[in-house]
Amino acid sequence: MHMIPEARAHIISELIQQDFLNEERFAMNFVRGKFNQKGWGRIRLKQELKRREISDYLINKAINQIKEGEYLTKLEILALKKYKQLGQDKSWYAKSKLKNHLIYKGFEIDLIMDEINNLYKF
């Protein structure tokens, strides 16, 4: 808005005092929204919050609001959806595509491999 720095600082200070700018609320809503709507895992959520310069304390607090059961269910749903899109192909290429998709979403590799092994049982 091309304001002088003193005016900008005063406005930001006032917004913080009135609780319009609140990093904790932002981090909590960001994690909840991206996890529920986009299916992002913990790794991607952490990266995105760090990119927005949110403190490690608030990042951990926000990510810890995701229950482990919900997290594993979301991973299972995403893996099954991608598995069906790949035509339930059991080739190495299909497994690689599935793994890369889940890594991109931000899930941990050990959880991904467990899910892939569950889907590709022979």
Q: What is the count of structural domains?
A: 2
Mean pLDDT rating? 91
Binned strand content = under 5%
Contiguous low-pLDDT stretches (5 residues minimum) are none
In total, the number of strands is: 0
Count of helical segments? 7
Rg, nearest Å: 19 Å
Largest sheet: none
User: Alpha-carbon distance between the termini?
Assistant: 62 Å
Structural class: mainly alpha
Structure described in brief:
The chain has 122 residues and is mostly helical.
Structural description of this entry:
Helix 3 runs antiparallel to helix 4, helix 5 crosses helix 6 and helix 6 runs antiparallel to helix 7. With 122 residues, the chain is mainly α. It starts with a helix and ends with a helix. It folds into 2 domains: 59 residues, no CATH class; 52 residues. It has 7 helices and no strands. The radius of gyration is 19 Å and the shape is elongated. The model has no long low-confidence stretch (mean pLDDT 91).
Task: List the main descriptive attributes of the protein structure presented here.
mainly alpha; 74% helix
Summarize the SSE layout with pairings.
Elements: H1 5-17, H2 23-38, H3 42-51, H4 56-63, H5 68-85, H6 92-105, H7 109-119
